[in-house]
Each structure stands twice: as C-alpha cells, then as structure tokens.
Amino acid sequence: MYTSKERQIHYQEPVAIPTLIDPTVIRAARQIYRTFIEIYPNRSQQPTGVVINRFTYRGKLIFSAKPILLPDECFVPLNQIEIDTH
User: Fold this and answer.
1) 22 pLDDT band (50/70/90 cuts)?
2) pTM of this structure
C-alpha cells in the first residue's frame, strides 16, 4: 500500500480544446459586432467577443477575459468573428 505522501496526485492544467460554434451563431455575433463598430468607430477598448443566446440569437459584447455564461449562451471570441472593420 502507498502512504499518503507516496500517492500524490499531480494536477495538470486542462488542455484547451477548440469548440465548434454554429455558423448561424457566428453570423449573429458578427452582426452585433458590426453594429457596435458602426455606432462607436473610435472606441479605444476592444471587446474580447460576443456572448450570444444559441436559440434567440440575442447577444452582447463582452470586454472581460472570462465571461460568465447562462446555459443557453455561448461565447464567440473576436478572432472567430473575423470581420473587416474598415
């Protein structure tokens, strides 16, 4: 038998697995972001992405690094929105 000192469990950080996001959700997030750019073209702070409801496609821009999501929501990072801002 192992003693408690011998049975140390080494914790490893989980590996980030990219999630696939429904293309319709990405299109809705892109539209929300595009509207933001049109209304606030000179805003200095860049959002990190869009939190969007997967069923209603309503969403909002997020400026924090780790958003808190409701069960029906998903986070679309800005790099997946791939929008030309010019």
Assistant:
1) confident
2) 0.70
